[in-house]
Structures are given as structure tokens and as C-alpha cells.
User: Fold this.
Amino acid sequence: MKNKVVVPDEKQISRRITKNKLAQGIFFLATLFGMVVLATLIIRIFSQGIGYLNIDFLTNYASRRPEDAGIKAALLGTIWVMSITIPVSLILGVGTSIYLEEYAPKNKFTRFIELNLANLAGVPSVVFGLLGLTVFVRLLGMGRSILAGGLTMSLLILPVIVVASKEAIRSIPQEQYEAAYAMGATKWQIIRTVVLPAATPGILTGAILSLSRGVGETASLLMIGAMTFIAYTPTSILDSFTILPIQIFSWASRPQAEFQAVAAAGSIVLLIILILMNSLAIVIRNKYSKRY
Amino acid sequence: MKSTIRDRIQQNQSKQSYQNKIETIMPMLFLLMASLSILVTAGIIFTLFRETIYFFSQVPFIDFITGTEWYPFFANNPSYGILPLLSGTFTIAAIAMAVAVPFGLAAAIYLSEYASDRRRKVLKPILEVLAGVPTVVYGLFALTFVTPLLQTFMPSLPIFNALSPGIVVGIMIIPQVASLSQEAMNAVPQSMRDGALALGATRLEVALKIVIPGSLSGIISSLVLGLSRAIGETMIVATAAGSTPNLGFTPTESIQTMTAYIVQVSLGDATFGSTIYYSIYAVGMTLFLFTLIMNLFANHISRKYREVY
Amino acid sequence: MNKEETVQSVYSVKNFNLWYGNTQALKDISIEIPEKQVVAIIGPSGCGKSTFIKTLNRMVELVPTVKMKGSIHYNNEDIFKSNAKVEALRTEVGMVFQKPNPFPKSIYDNVAYGPRIHGIKDKKTLDEVVERGLKGAALWEEVKDRLSENAFGLSGGQQQRLCIARALAVEPEVILMDEPTSALDPLSTAKIEDLIHELKKDYSIIIVTHNMQQAARISDKTAFFLNGEIIEFGPTEKMYSKPDDKRTDDYISGKFG
Assistant:
């Protein structure tokens, strides 16, 4: 009988198997770590802020006394800013993605736009804030207004919306295009009658997720100057404003523990808004996902 | 009977000047929208550049990049040396990466190499919720929970310090590192894993010797992007790291990052046109350049690895 | 020497060549496609038959690297002439694809799609067009009570007949079919074949098929493609009984393919 070069070494094998098992356990625990932190954070914020969370908290303006403080102005400010951000970022984002997916020739300019968008997505939001401060607030004379804030935030989430819309458009099967072309449809007719209807759920899902990032966005609008004390309801897009996350920040940076609890109460409202937005996105995605 | 529709269609087609106009206008309109993103970048560079130039007409460039003291608020004899802000920024970034790299990569390996499809479909979205928590909430969490928690082990730790926000920034970028790295690992062909498994390798050996080397550029790209996020993170550090520009790398002290300085100035009443006002553009420019270079680098290497398989 | 052709040609292709990048997919194709007959195109996969049929309505130009040389006339008009409108050509030449590809819209909206994009909007006409199209595709009886339901709820065979109805709705002259039954079960295939028999009274039909029995069953003339060339083109019975070329015989008798 020939001698085998490799003789299975039972001990060595079982050692390797143990090592594998051990590593699997460690990797799993490391994955769980993030979730444990998430759970801790949620429990912590809730227990810290729940005491201040009541109807008055939603209907009062900010106050010097923690027990009277409320988020009415901040909540309305967020809604006003979003009412500018939603149409502007959606139109620009979907338009850009239609250009890139449907019209753009494969040339250097197109690649440049794509690269530029990828880089914009990584620009820190304070830098967007500086842009907004210089161009919208000062250069275009909008002042520290809702309009300036909404436009700044639109630019901030534009790259994210573009990525989501491009993905939604790209998931439309080629056969759909062929069907429309073969009927003698023109490019724009195909976009209008085939591409947009089919991509709408995907675009909406992506847009809601991007907007939920905008709802929590703080730094860029701080730069615009949205940290003013507001005790009235905005009536026009040129009014000054504050938004929910900035109100939270302003409470959190006070030394008194009571105000930090009020900040936690505000955080609960913010988290609930985000959970609602994300659930809506998931519902839309699940409702329309199995189609082709 | 057969002619009616055909005739009407042909009639319509012969007078389609309106349609022709739309077909030429729409692409131009969309091109215009797509070009706006370039305008945004140009706007960022232009505004930063213009104000930064003005800043350097008041503060010598060499003092800015080599100065070791950052005391812009001193009424007489303010100093504008960026190094303390840079060291603060990189202290935070280093702590954050020390958290995000091991946890992010371990999660990526688990999700890509060990987890069943069903388990991955549950774990990944939950992990991504972590990335969706607003940074201002993280800041509050760092200040009112993580710092007191750390103080029970380190009684001498001040309320404002680099350690606590650094850890929280790291936690915030775990999902980004994990999901981008996992995508890179997924791109390694299954056949390569099967080959090694068939030779009797364990999953751990496959992960360490086949998958990680095979997806290294993607992993590095995800880490660089994570680092860039950590450097640009604002609200967590503005809330919990304090505002003491200190040169050095001591995590247990209060520090100030570039982003936190910009926020601090914009909160105060820095008069428009003062040197302090212009200083936030110089700091913003520095921040922008750092993140831009990292993003370009990450983009470059991740595109390279996509072509490998 | 005045030999009048008894049948009119709907397509006249002369010395036509086509490349994808540097790969030549069609070599020196010349063929006269007769009116109101069924012409089957057979050949092994990769022989250029799909490319050829997609050239006839210029769908092949959607591939960015495509280059072409030679001429194709449709009803004596050069389809590549500079002022020719590709949309107009595609309105007169309908197409049915390998995989049924209805739009994710209602059955009604699918059939009304063509007339609508060509500017026909009034409800009464559209109702008529939809009914006529569905009747023409032998689908009317099965769906007349659920026209507003989503087309994706139909079976594969019904979807393919819906796609035929959609093509019929703009009253084309020619219908191109690219392996229309390859994704269907035998029963649905038989229905489509019956339908093709009916349709050839009013339309010229060009059908690409992988299935030689199908070509024999439904076509009047057959063209055999191999490596981008037409090896033989003639009446179907002759092609199947005594072909001129040995390669045709080999393919039809199953020696390769």
C-alpha cells in the first residue's frame, strides 16, 4: 500500500473546527452589539423623556421653564421646511436620474456627473450649511428663512434621491422598453407611460427614506441660523424658523438635567416620526415589489 | 373597416410638430437638472474658496497650517492655527474607527459567510436602523448616557471628552462599514468558496484566506468612507466633546473638532465680515478637502475591484 | 423578359450586412418578403435570425454598437432614409416578442396603449379598438368581463395573445414574431398557431422559430439562416421535402442545431 502524503490528523481537524465555531460566535456577538446599543438607546431615550411627553408638549412653544417647554414651533418648522424640500429634491432628483438612465450618452461628461454625485453624497452636511449660508441666505438675499433652509436641505439629500431613483428605473426589465418601442412610442412617451409608472413605487420608497434623513438633519440648518427662539407659527416661506432636531440640540446643550430630559422627549417625537416614515416606505415597497 | 384607425394615426403623425418639440425639449430639461449637481459642487468650491482667500488675506496661510494654537475668540491677539482642530478631529475619528472597524467587519463577515438567508434578512435591516438614528439623538445619548457610564469606570473623566462621542460616532458608522464590506464580500464568486470548502477548509479559513483577500479593496473602500463620515460628523461632537481646541491625542480630555468649531461660530454672533466669520470657511475648506480626497480614493478603489470578477 | 411577380413584396432586402461592434451578425442578406403570407425564419441559435427580424422594424438600433450596410425597402420606401421616422415604421410593423411582455396596466389599457400614444383619445373609438384587437387575437371571449383587471393576472398564453392584440390595435400591415411560443405550454402554443392562420388573411407575418415542426405547420415560405447568412429561401413544402442545399437538409433532419 502506498503511503499517503496527507494523513488526516484528527486532533488538528477538531482544533480547526473549534476555532471556526468560536469565531462564528464572536462574529455573531459583534453583529448583535449594534442591536444591543440600538435597544439601549431607545430604552434610554424613552425612559429619560417620557415624563415630559404629553399633549402640552406638542402644542406649547419653547419655554424657559422645562415643564412648560414644547415643540410646536419646531414641529411646524420641520413641516414648512419639508414642504419646500420635498418638491424641489424630488423633481431635481427624478429628473437627474431620468437623464442618467435614459438619455445620457456613455461619455466622459456623464461619468463626471456620476462621480460628482457620488462625491456630493459624502460631503459633510456642515459644508452644505456653509453653501446655504453663503448662497441662499446672503447672496440671494433670502435671509435666515424657511426657503433658504428648505433649499439647502434639498441639495443635501439630492444625491441620495438620485441613487434611489436610478435604482428604481434600472429595475424595469428591458422587455417593457421593447414592448413600447415596438408600438412606435417615442422616448418621452416611453418615459411617461412605462418608466415613470413602473418606477414610482421604488422612487417613492427611496424618497421617503431620503427625506427621513432630512427630517433628522441638524448641522446644515444650524448654519442657516435656525437656532433662533421662535414663539410663533410661520405664515410664509420667508419667515425665520427652527426645526425639531435643532430644538432638541438646543435643549441638550443646556446644563440642566431637566432640559436634557425635555430634549429626550423631543427625541421620542422625532424617532416616532422617522419610524412612521420608514414603515410607510416598507409598506409601499412590499405592496409593489413582486411585479415582474 | 380597416382604414379608420390607421388613417387617423397617419394624420396625427403628419402633424406632430408639438410632439417633436417635446422630444427635443425633455432631454435638455433633464440634462439641465443633472448638470445642477455639478453646479452645487462648483458652488461649494467657489464659496469656500472665495471666503477662504479673504481669510488668508488677514491670517497668513503658513500660520494657519502650522499654528499650534486656536484661540479665535481672544479679543487682542487671536491665533488661528488649525492643528488643534485637526488633532481633535482625528482623535474622534481614531476612536470611532477603533469601534467601527472590528464590529463592522465582524458583522460583515457574519452576514456574508455565516448567516442563513433568513437570518440575514432580519439582521441587516435592524443594523441599518442604527444608521437612521438622527445624529442629534446620538449626541444626547453620548452626553447623558455614555459619558456617565464611562465615568463609573473612569471617575476623573470630564463631562465633555473625546472618548464618549468618539465611541458613539463609531457605533453610528458600524452599519455603513458592515453593509459596504458585506457587499464587497458577496462579490467574491461562490465557486471560490466552494473550491476551498471542498478541500476541507472551515468557514473561518475560507473567510480569512479567500473572501477577505478577494474583497480587500472593497473593504478598504468601505473603511475610508466610514472614516470620511467620522471626520465630517458634527452634532455628536458638538453636543458631547466640548469646545476646547487642544493639540494632542488625549481621548479623556475635552477637545474641539473642525465641524464643532464651525457650529460654535454659527451659533454665536460672529459679525458678518469679521475674521472669525471668515475662519469658518477656511476650516470648512480644510474639512471639505479631507473628505473629498477620501471619497475620491474610496470611489477609485471600489471601482477597481468591481472589474476584477 | 417581363416576368411580373404574382405576389407583391412587402419587404425587399438587398445586400444587407450588420455588425455588433466588430462581430458581423448578418452577411450579405438579400430576400423578398411576400405580402399576406407567413414567412418562417429558422436556424440554429446565434445564426442571426432574431437580429434580422429586429432590423425590419429598426429595433436592432437600440443596441448602441450596431453598424449596418445595405438596403431594406418597406413598401418601396427605404427604411433607413434620413427623413424616415422610425416611429411611423414601427406603427405599421407590429412586433410580438419571445416572452410575453404586457405592461403592468389593465387589459384595456394594454390594448389601448398604441392608439393612445398615437393621439387617439376618444373613449368610443378606443372601446371599439380594444374589442376589435382582442377579438382579432382570439382573447375577447376570455377577458371581456374583466377588461379593467391587471394584465399580469392572465396566464402566459393569454398574455402573449394580449400582446398580439396590443400589436393589432394600431392596425399594422406586418406582424413580426420573435419565437412567440418558446415560453408557452403546448396548448397555448396551439392556440397561437391557430391564430396565426387566421391573421395571415389580413397581415403579412414574419415569424422566427426554433421549432422546425412549427415552421412546417404554419408557414408558406421558409428561410434558413446559418452563421448570419441565408442558406436557402423557398416554399415551405419544398424546403422540407427536397431542399437545394445539403446544410438545410442536415439542419431540418436534425443533424445539428
Notes: Chain B has two domains: 1-38, 79-306. The longest strand of chain B covers residues 70-71. Residues 1-38 of chain B form one domain.
